[in-house]
Design goal:
The chain is an alpha+beta fold. The protein has 6 helices and 17 strands. It has a single domain, classed as Clavaminate synthase-like (Double-stranded beta-helix), CATH 3.60.130. Strands 1, 2, 3, 4, 5, 6, 7, 15 and 17 form a 9-stranded mixed β-sheet that branches. It has a 3-stranded antiparallel β-sheet with strand order 14-8-16. Bound molecules: succinic acid. The site of succinic acid has 11 residues, from strand 7, strand 16 and strand 17.
Length: 284
């Protein structure tokens, strides 16, 4: 199929689009890739149907965006060490990704994008919400933008897990196979509060509820009111869209311009995703 068969249909005013007319099991032509890449930059979150896509084919599609990088706390599936299985079984208490966040903003070089394919879905529920952090920045007053422009913030993987390491906590009550990071992998980082998208030049707010702890040079107590204001502003409904999963739905999102939240509303059911992340650059 050629690129003219590809359709891109926005799902909300803020972000997100359905993409159809392409079989992701086949290698993409350059014109097909250009169309998908343009849609990715314009809509930030793309939803495909990809029936029969194998883990190897998911990795091949991910590599069109850039090199694959492992999740620091994840043990991959058999034969595909960089494909993390996110499994929530009927008895699991913890919901992976159930808080607004940008993926692994605690890494010195966070990922460009994350790609998830649904392998098993509950009969209803288990949607994922996304939001557009460019819109969040654009909606601030000039005075607030000026103040934030020079600020940096400290991000850590341990923000919500102060009673033990993140891997220990997660391993205790989830089916997702997690582990301690490899020696030398740092899971704390200071990043600009306002970052510029390296491909579009558009500015966005880069703090998130899951991982950002304080502004650089400020105490946690001093940082809390302004961070809480920014989180609530970023999470406003008009910055969001919500996407549902069928078996074989594949969603890829731009971590440089979005946050997401996995909704835990399917008690007693199973949800299984295969997740791949793509290497990014140092936020600037
Ligand atoms: C994640 O935060 O990477 C998982 C999102 C989801 O399972 O919907």
């Amino acid at each position: 199929m050629d690129a003219t068969a590809i359709t891109v249909t926005p799902v909300a005013g803020a972000l997100g689009a359905y993409v159809a007319g392409v079989d992701l099991r086949d290698p993409l032509s350059n014109t097909q890739w250009d169309r998908i890449h343009r849609a990715f930059l314009d809509h930030h979150v793309l939803r495909f149907q990809a029936p029969g896509l194998s883990p190897g084919e998911q990795e091949a599609f991910a590599r069109r965006f850039g090199p694959i990088v492992p999740y620091p706390f994840g043990a991959g599936i058999d034969g595909h060490p960089d494909v993390l299985e996110i499994r929530k079984s009927p008895t699991d208490k913890r919901n992976f990704g159930g808080i607004w966040h940008s993926d692994t903003s605690y890494l010195p070089v966070p990922p460009l994008a994350t790609m998830l394919i649904a392998r098993e879905v509950p009969p209803a529920g288990g949607d994922t919400m996304f939001l557009n952090t460019h819109l969040a920045y654009d909606g601030l007053s000039d005075g607030m933008k000026e103040m934030l422009d020079g600020l940096r913030a400290f991000n850590s993987s341990d923000k919500r897990y102060r009673t033990g390491s993140r891997a220990q906590q997660l391993a205790a009550d989830t089916g997702t196979a997690l582990k301690e990071p490899e020696p030398g992998v740092v899971t704390e980082a200071v990043h600009p509060v306002v970052r510029r998208h390296p491909e579009t030049g558009h500015k966005s707010l880069y703090v998130n509820r899951a991982h950002t702890i304080h502004f650089d040079g400020w105490t946690e107590e001093e940082s809390k009111p302004l961070l809480e204001y920014l989180f609530r502003h970023i999470e406003r409904p008009e910055h969001q869209c919500r996407l549902a999963w069928d078996e074989s739905t594949l969603i890829v999102w731009d971590n440089r311009s979005t946050q997401h939240f996995a909704i835990d509303d399917y008690a007693g059911e199973t949800r299984v995703m295969h997740r791949v992340t793509i290497a990014g650059d140092v936020p600037a």
